Amino acid sequence: xxxxxxxxxxxxxxxxxxxxxxAPNLVGDVGIASEEVTARATVGAGxxxxxxxxVPAFDYHHPPDMELIDDxxxxxxxxxxxxxxxxxGEEMDSPRGRIYLMREGLEGEPMTDAMVRHFDLCxxxxxxxxxxxxxxxxxxxxxxxxxxxxxxxxxxxxDRLFRELIFRIFPYPARLRVLAAGLKPxxxxxxxxxxxxxxxxxxxxxRLKTLEELTPDPPKTGALSKVAPFTPAAxxxxxxxxxxxxxxxxxxxxxxxxxTVRVLAAEGCDVVAPKQGCCGAxxxxxxxxxxxxxxxxRTIDTFEAAGVENIVANVAGCGSAMKEYGHLLRDDPEYxxxxxxxxxxxxxxSELIHELGPVAPRHPLPVVAAYHDACHLAHGQGIxxxxxELLRAIPGMELRNIQESEICCGSAGIYxxxxxxxxxxxxxxxxxxxxxxxxxxxxxxxxGCLLQIRASLERMGESVPLAHPMEVVDAxxxxxxLDSIL
Length: 486
Ligand code: SF4
Ligand code: SF4
Fold this sequence. Notes:
With 486 residues, the protein is α/β, with parallel strands linked by helices. It has helices at residues 35-42, 66-70, 83-88, 95-106, 113-121, 127-131, 138-152, 157-169, 173-188, 191-198, 206-214, 248-252, 254-266, 281-285, 289-306, 316-322, 325-328, 336-345, 349-356, 375-381, 385-392, 415-418, 420-437, 447-459, 469-478, and strands at residues 230-231, 239-243, 269-272, 310-313, 346-348, 367-372, 397-400, 441-444, 466-467. It folds into four domains: 11-154, Fumarate Reductase Iron-sulfur Protein, Chain B, domain 2; 158-214, no CATH class; 223-355, Glutathione S-transferase Yfyf (Class Pi), Chain A, domain 2, CATH 1.20.1050; 361-485, 3-Layer(aba) Sandwich (Rossmann fold), CATH 3.40.50. A five-stranded mixed beta sheet has the order 1-3-2-4-5. Strand 8, helix 24 and strand 9 (466-467) form a beta-alpha-beta unit. Helix 13 (254-266) crosses helix 25 (469-478), helix 19 (349-356) crosses helix 21 (385-392) and helix 23 (420-437) packs across helix 24. It is globular, with a radius of gyration of 23 Å. The termini are far apart. The relative contact order is 0.09.
């Protein structure tokens, strides 16, 4: 049934049943406008765009907060740091424009295709948060908006299926392992090169082509890629920590986890790596609230049972998501306090080592390197200095700055899969800036950035070895040459 409203009555001020969200498990079922109405309000055909009958963009279940929107003074300082504004030059593809659209939604405007497009194009990179002098909490605004979009917007069938495919595979390490096993012959028998040389790659849609390009190499195996459930500290114990092993990280980059454990142990940590699932980062950053909350609750249960003082992440997006659990589960009577306490214990690996003060001796690694800031580390967690200091402390390492370091590489969770064109442009822009440094090694703390940059360099006919900061520090502590990790 289509609801009526008085023009000008803000959606967030009204309480009619058709628009009130209620508990999240009702949303999308009976808590808001019916599916039929939602579809008509968002996919175009028959949408009442004028007159006095519309379905407001947002329901009552955590819409973007008008008080946070009011913090924006429209100064525009964020515009030059916003990747989509740089690409498209459109006000509505800038943080200020998107905040304006959120206000319109709260004031009762419908969720149009155009509005959703501007939100979808946002990378969630949070560069605008760093740039904003007024402290606008855009991360909370876009998270709330994405949740509304995911519940209320009717995507095309192809888009829905593609997103479902991603979310049925990526957060599940067991399924990723099956995928990794299936990919082995493709890589090892050189089928990838053949496939590309044959021109068949051009027949794929942009999304599938990007998926193929981003597919990681088969995981490195062997003793140096194994993570034990418990690793004791070397020497005096300074901290007991739990390692979040991640999903893509665990399956495709087990050697990074193993290096992280060795570094933490060398720096005086007992490291526990309990059996665990996904932390929910991908789901949360894509607006899949219920799914993300379920993953968060399980992760909290797991690390509470492990009895650790800190939870350590070596993936920027995972660390950022876990630091937000307190906000995410604020309405859950059983988990609200526990989630807030959990979030306070989360540390990025470089952040923890910096906090403890490094003690393990470093051996020289003579190389010119560049460090790439993963957005969810630099903008999401404010961690820029710690990994750089760790790397600069390695004798022989020269660390160079990358121009436009604040601009996203286009990876951004699932962004490069669902928005391949702007992601590719950003990837190549980043790769060009990396090449300008003349670095012989690129270091970055996010597997998504690593895959995105590697694919961009390949498209440009270039290549730079890539590594995680923990791999580099581990090689230095063990006195191994860089070649051993590349
Ligand atoms: S999160 Fe990134 S892409 Fe989105 S508005 Fe902010 S700067 Fe722009
Ligand atoms: S910098 Fe902050 S206050 Fe200024 S327009 Fe951007 S979000 Fe608004």
